[in-house]
Amino acid sequence: MTTGQTNLLAGIGEDGRHLYTCPLCEAMCGLEIEVSDGRVVGIRGNRDDTWSRGHICPKGASLGVVHEDPDRIRRPMIKVDGHWQEVSWDAAFRRCTELLAPVIEKYGIGAVTCYTGNPLAHSFSLGRYTGVLLGMSGIPLSYSPGTVDQWPKNLSSHLMYGGWWSFPVPDIERTDLLVVMGANPAASQGSLLAAPDVMGIIDGIRKRGKVIVIDPVRTLTASRASEWLPITPGTDAALLLGVTHTLFDEDLVALGAMAPHLDGLDRLREVTADWSPERVAGVTGIDAERIRGLARQLVSTERAVVYGRIGTCNQEFGSLASWLVDVVNILTGHFDNVGGSMFPRATAWSVTVQPIPGLEDGAAEFGRSVLGCAAPRRCSVRCRCHAWPRRSRRRGRARSRRSSPWRATRSCRLRPVTRSTRCCRNWTR
Ligand code: SF4
Asked: What distance in angstroms lies between residue 196's CA and the mean position of ligand 1's atoms?
């Protein structure tokens, strides 16, 4: 994804300038790597990269050190008589079979798990095979850094929209009021919103509208915002409850076109009735009148959106806060609307939208967004069970029942009922 000057690139294994994509996080920054005498002597962000436009963080800038680390594992290693030794790939795979086969034979595939890290998830070539391996092996449980990243959002999306990866994202290019909670795009280049030069876009919002950052720390993003609201760590859910309370209390709820697609609204009103801004002001550290003002601002701005990220996830009430971010966007009329919170379509295949092997019909649609499309309106929420054949759906439902302790909490959930969400009701029934 680069433009210009490719004629200056060095060949594989040669000294000179190389272009590379950092695999360490979803920002997938384009890197320019200088190699001299066979060693990495410099890494900087590639300004020609159409995706990252020169962004880089300390991790990406340090990849050369990792590459040159003498302790870095460069070939497969197995332990023989208590000592590690390098072996060929064939020998390594043989050893894997020797170790795994008896375990699977004795205890079943449920005794096996795996851990997939960021460099795998953000590598196109490797990522393609993850889903294939997991799907075909039948490994029922796997682990990833998501546990300390976005799982609360996965959970709330699953409960609301019927898909773990059905994340609505802020339409930052077209919004006029962006409320950022627990995110620092100045460092991360944006997470779960995926756009080139996010801070450039945020600067644009500030010029034509307003950017409010709600964060315990005055981050670099906060320092470039129109307003910074310091919040007591871990109280984002309380703040959002106060905002939701205000929306009901002051009769500000503006569902718009979403109204026929929602359930649980009365229950939501009940559960937020006790959470007035005056009650949560003390614990959040944000003045009650400012909380009420925030609710009013969101409703009175035609194109506005609340965006919550890792800070709203990695805390005691992460699932609640993640859910409430979407609830506030829905109640203020900023859901599935231009400049609001929208379901994008993948621009390319990724590990999260891969078809299940043998079920290629389940592949994601491609394109930018469901809005502004001349085609008839279609459901934008991806739903796996929708594409699964009968036998797999039954298996999926059984698995869902076994692994869904949160089903007990289903009595109160405000969720859009789209075509595929109805389908997912069958999935969770
Ligand atoms: S933000 Fe840092 S870690 Fe993430 S892709 Fe860019 S350079 Fe790599």
From this structure: 13
Q: What percent of the chain has pLDDT over 70?
A: 79
pLDDT tens-digit series, residues 37-52: 999 999 999 999 998 9
Count of CB atoms situated within 10 Å of the CB of 305: 31
Helix (H, G, I), strand (E, B) or coil at 302: coil
189 CB less than 6 Å from ligand 1? yes
Predicted confidence at residue 353, as pLDDT, reads 54
Ligand 1 atom index nearest CA of 187: 1
Q: What is the mean pLDDT of the chain?
A: 81
What Rg, from alpha-carbon coordinates, does the chain have?
24
What 3-state DSSP class applies to 196?
coil
Atom in ligand 1 nearest the alpha carbon of residue 27: 5
Q: What ligand 1 atom has the least distance to the C-alpha of 56?
A: 7
Determine how many CB atoms are found less than 10 A away from the CB of residue 385: 21
Q: Whose CA is nearest to atom 4 of ligand 1?
A: 25
Please work out whether the CB of residue 28 comes within 6 Å of at least one atom of ligand 1: yes
What is the rounded (10 degree) CA torsion for 40, 32, 72, 59? 120
Which amino acid residue places its CA nearest to atom 5 of ligand 1? 28
d(CA 73, CA 381): 41
Kind plus residue range of the DSSP H or E element containing 345: none
- Give the total residue count for the chain: 429
Render pLDDT for 110-147 as a digit per residue (tens, 0 to 9). 999 988 888 887 777 777 777 778 778 888 888 888 88
Q: Tell me if 24 CB under 6 Å of ligand 1.
A: yes
pLDDT for 392-403, tens place per residue?
A: 334 444 333 333
The answer to whether the CB of 186 is under 6 A from ligand 1 is no
Which of 21, 49, 53, 59 gets mutated to test ligand 1 (max ligand atoms within 8 A of its CB)? 59
Average pLDDT value for residue range 69-84: 93
Tens digits of residue pLDDT in 262-304 = 999 999 999 999 999 999 999 999 999 999 999 999 999 999 9
Nearest to 207 by CA among 217, 195, 197, 199: 199
